[in-house]
Structure formats: structure tokens, C-alpha cells
Amino acid sequence: MKKKWLRFISVLLMAVLLVAGYYVYSMFSFLDAVNSNNTFSTGDNLLNTATWEGKEQVNILFLGVDSRGEGEQPRSDTILLLSVNPVTKKASLFSIMRDTYVNIEGVGQAKINAAFAYGGPELLISTVQDFLDLPIHYYVATDFQGFAKIIDAIGGVDVNVQEKMVHADDGVYDILLNAGEQHLTGQQALMYVRYRGTARADFDRTERQREMVKIVGQKIASPSMALKLPKILKEVTPYTSSNVAAGDLYKLIALGLKVDASGMVTEQLPPVEFLTEQLNVSGEQILWPDIEGTRQFVHEKIGDTQTATTIEPGTDKNHQEVPQNGPTGNSNQGTQQPPPAQTTSTGPSAKVSGEYVNLRQKPGTEHEIIGQVYAGELLSVEEQQGDWYYVRTKDGMYGYVSAALVQMVN
After folding, report:
1. What does the pLDDT average to over 178-193?
2. What is the residue-averaged pLDDT of the chain?
3. DSSP calls for 307-351
4. Euclidean distance between CA atoms 151 and 79, whole angstroms
5. What does the alpha-carbon distance between residue 200 and residue 314 come to, in Å, rounded to a whole number?
6. Polar residues bias located where (predicted)?
């Protein structure tokens, strides 16, 4: 009887060792493959990431890549920054608006997602570090197929789709989702995080992306997912690039097990109080950031007490007023006066200059977006308040638009 028990324990121990060995092999194979995958790199820049010792704040950049254009350098459709404080065990997730107008080394002023197209993850990482005055330690980049594979590998996700989503794209990545609680496959989850057709456009889209990260993070952290980890890694390997080494992964896993993903802070960058919607010299709609305010916002959210002095919107570190001039040279700070009473006055007309302009409840980019008007559409200007027009659309809707994004026609 004793020999049978010893034999059983030996077999069980061997099985455990084999499973553990398979997991370790899967991890090393995955890391070796994604570290040597240079699909997204242009080869023109060096990877300039910071070294993480394991005790200080760790910052990881997650990049969703649109690599559909054959012969073209792919663009970063999604830019997410995960920051984990090893002292407080708190995590913060930021989505960086892709239309944020920043300085890109060797390029000049451009939308931040252009950095990936010009110089791959290397140039984008350098640009984000300069923009936020924050070290980036690691990055993980995957394309649309990789994202869908992750969702399918974990068995899909349950999401409450707030409204019907319809958008014709290229026949492969068209978007069609009905409203309501539903279980999404990988392709459907990709539709959910890419859709920009709601009233708040990219603001809503980045909010859904942060929501999806939390859902996926909580599901992967569940015990039932442990057995699926090798399969998940195998599925996403061909579509993923990263600089996470084996020794780093163990430290990150150890830290991740101590973090409560459900309590993760999620924010957009720049926050609404530190951005201005304008047109650049090429007529593109951009988000012009208050860089000092955005940096301060990030450092406070992640618990960096070294720079914890409050900065009011439109001021510098010494609380002095600074101009919010964008690339068109127009001040666009926006007042917060109540809207005037609605009127049937026709007034002068203004035409939308860029691709679209947001219609807001009150003047100022911090106020709610209640609709959008598109290129070439004529608006009846009822009143001007600073750098904002109170307008009536052709459909009879009233709201405020930035004067910098429309042109007076009479």
C-alpha cells in the first residue's frame, strides 16, 4: 500500500513538473518571439526605454496598431499607458488621444499617432516620454488581428453596448453591433473599441478602450484562465512586438498579483480641462494640449509626490496665466458663461472647416458634447462669446462651436 502511494505521489509530482516546465517554456518562447519581432519598427530609431529595478513606478505603453495598408508604415490606432505604483499597489490606466498635437523629434508638430508611422514604436515611446515627462519602461504592440485573437483565446467578453454601432469600412473591418448586454467575440470586441460614431467621437472611443482593458485584465487574472495562458500566448505571438524580457516578466507578474484591477483609475490624456480643439495649418482638426497641466495631472494620478503641486487650467507651474495659442495662432480658452436664450434669428453663417467640429452645451472644451457637424455644413451664428460661436444647425439644434474650427461666409 505504501509503495502504491509513493508511486502515485511520484507520478503526480512528475505531472506537476511537466506542466510547470510547459508553462515556463511557453513564456520563454513567447518572449523570445515578440522581442525579435520587428514588424512594426522602421529601423530608423533606437529603443530608448527606461530600466525598471522593480521597486519604483513602472510604466507600460500598450499600442493597438492599424496595419491594414499594404506597403505603408502602420499607424498607432490606440495608445494606452498603464502605470503601477509598487508602494501603494495601485494601477492607473490612461488613454492618450491620438489627435493630440505634440512635437515629434525629426518631424515637428504633428498628431501623436503620427510618431508611430514615422518611426515605429521607438519614436512613439520617445515622443510620449517627452510629452508627459515620464519614463516608459516597457511596451507591447499588437495589431487588429492580435487583439481579436486575445479576446477569442479568453472565451470572449461580456459588454453592455450603449447604442447601435454601424460603420462601413473596408469590408473586412466594418462595424455592426446592436445595443444591449451581449457576449462579444474577438472581431466584435474590436468593433466595440474602434467605433467613433457616437456624439463624443474619440472621447467615447478611448473610454471604451479603457473599459475593455479592465474587463480583459480581470478575466485573465481569474484562476480559470491559468490553464489557457500557453494558448493565449501562442495565439497572439505572430501579431505582437514587445521589449519585456523573461526576468522582467516575473517581476511584473509578482507586482500584478498584488494589484486590484477592479480599483484601477482610468483617465484620458489630455484631460478635457487641459486641451483645446483647433485646426492646424493643414486644416486638420487637432487637440492642442496644455503640456504642463497634462504632466501635472498624470504625476498626481499615479502618486508621484515629487511634483504634487496643483496647476489650474491655463496656468504654468508658478500659477501664472499662459496663452493657449494653437497652431493657427488663435486663442481658444473658452468662457464658462451660461448660454443665451434660444432664438429663431438667422444671423450670419459659418461653414465647418475641418472634417467635423463638436457641438457643445456651453463654450469651452470641458463641457459636454451634444452633437457634431461635418465638413462644409453651414451653421447660423446666433451670438459670439469670446472664441466660441453659439450656433443653430440645419437640423435646428443649438450649441457652441469653437470659432477656430469654422469660417464666416457672410
Report:
1. 91
2. 77
3. G-----TTB-TTS-B-----TTS-------PPPPPP------EEE
4. 18
5. 23
6. 321-332
CA neighbor of 127 nearest in space, from 51, 49, 183, 65:
49
Confidence band for 7, pLDDT divided at 50, 70 and 90: low
Does the pLDDT at position 249 exceed 80?
no
Q: Name every residue whose Cβ is closer than 8 Å to that of residue 7 and which is 6 or more positions away in sequence.
A: none
Q: Which residue has the cell 483617465?
A: 267
3-class DSSP assignment, residue 73: coil
CB neighbours of residue 241 within 10 Å: 23
Q: How far is CA 320 from CA 311, 316, 317, 323, 329, in A?
A: 10, 5, 7, 10, 20
Residue 343 makes CB contacts below 8 A (sequence gap 6+) with: 382
Domains and CATH numbers, the chain: 58-269 (3.40.630.190), 349-408 (2.30.30.40)
Q: What gap in Å lies between CA 133 and CA 269, rounded to an integer?
A: 13
Q: What is the distance between the alpha carbons of residues 311 and 41, in angstroms, rounded to a whole number?
A: 37
Instruction: Point out which residues pair with 79 in neighbouring strands.
Output: 63
323-340 confidence digits (pLDDT tens) = 334 444 333 333 333 333
**Residue 246: partners with Cβ closer than 8 Å, 6 or more residues away:** 27, 28, 31
